[in-house]
Design a protein that fits this description.
Elements lengths: L2 E12 L2 E12 L3 E6 L5 H9 L6 E6 L2 E2 L5 H7 L1 E4 L11 H9 L9 H7 L16 H13 L5 E4 L8 H16 L4 E4 L3 H7 L2 E6 L2 E7 L5 H9 L24
Parallel strand pairs: 3-8, 3-9, 6-7, 7-8
Antiparallel strand pairs: 1-2, 1-4, 4-5, 9-10
Bound molecules: adenosine-5'-triphosphate (ATP).
């Protein structure tokens, strides 16, 4: 498989806090990568830095062979990157359809439009004219993913797929995600639910204290191994990205 995204030595900070500390990883075309890790591990900052919503302090982000590290976020959308942010961030007073249309205004050419999004995510069809702010959490998450699809991305980054959703809503959102995977989409999913993440992903990357501590095909690691990496209990070899040595005192650079 060809690498669609290549991140090398990426560093991102919040003031003096090093949230992402030299992360290197690749995402192949058609791959579903689950990005897991404890609260504060740096997952959201990594996704936001890749999407251009947060500035990289060091390192490079290469999409489809082009270095996009210094490109503004909206230009990255034009190159085929879309982020579904944590907390959905829909326009609450606009309808579902209006939220979709706003995202589609400067879309790249491609398969996704209001009708194809509603076909792919049937739970949204009866909600088309409903205010986004009136939807349940699961419905909003589906609408948020649909909105990102409207840009016709080559790579979709979804932050906290199921956070805060009722189990039935998680199932509904994962039906949407499964439909994308079956359609050959390239996805990076940040997911707190390890079992769920490992059931849909080809690859699992675990972050700890801003670093990648595990990067392996989902089929080659057990849930226990990922859990150990999650808590920094022991190291698991990576397949594609260099592993940084976890710090003995990982919080020492924090403010
Ligand atoms: P979570 O699952 O809690 O969202 P995460 O793995 O996505 O965690 P980040 O949200 O990227 O991690 O946070 C990484 C570190 O950066 C944490 O220590 C967090 O407190 C800090 N951080 C995140 N956003 C900001 C911000 N806007 N200002 C200051 N520090 C921040």
């Amino acid at each position: 498989m060809t690498d669609l995204l290549r991140i090398s030595g990426l560093v991102a900070r919040h003031g003096l806090l090093h949230a992402v500390r030299g992360v290197s990883l690749t995402v192949a075309e058609g791959e579903t990568l689950a990005l897991v890790g404890a609260n504060g591990a740096g997952k959201s900052t990594l996704l936001r830095t890749v999407a251009g919503a947060h500035a990289a302090a060091e390192g490079a982000v290469v999409l489809g062979g082009d270095d996009i590290t210094r490109l503004a976020a909206h230009r990255r959308v034009g190159r085929g990157l879309a982020l579904v942010p944590e907390g959905r961030k829909l326009f609450p007073d606009m309808t579902v359809e209006e939220n979709l249309l706003v995202a589609g205004r400067r879309a790249r050419p491609g398969q996704w439009n209001v009708d194809t999004v509603l076909d792919a995510f049937p739970l949204l069809r009866p909600l088309r004219d409903k205010r986004a702010g009136s939807l349940s959490g699961g419905q909003q998450q589906a609408a948020s993913i649909g909105r990102a699809l409207m840009t016709n991305p080559r790579l979709l980054l979804i932050d906290e797929v199921s956070l805060g959703l009722a189990p039935v809503a998680v199932d509904a959102v994962y039906e949407c995600v499964d439909a994308l995977i079956r359609g050959g989409a390239t996805l990076v999913l940040v997911e707190q639910d390890l079992s769920r993440a490992m059931s849909v992903a080809n690859r699992v990357v675990c972050m700890l204290e801003g670093r990648v501590v595990l990067d392996a095909p989902a089929a080659d690691v057990t849930r226990d191994q990922v859990t150990d990496a999650y808590f920094g209990l022991h190291r698991v070899p990576t397949t594609s990205a260099p592993v940084d040595t976890p710090q003995t005192h990982p919080t020492s650079e924090r403010t």
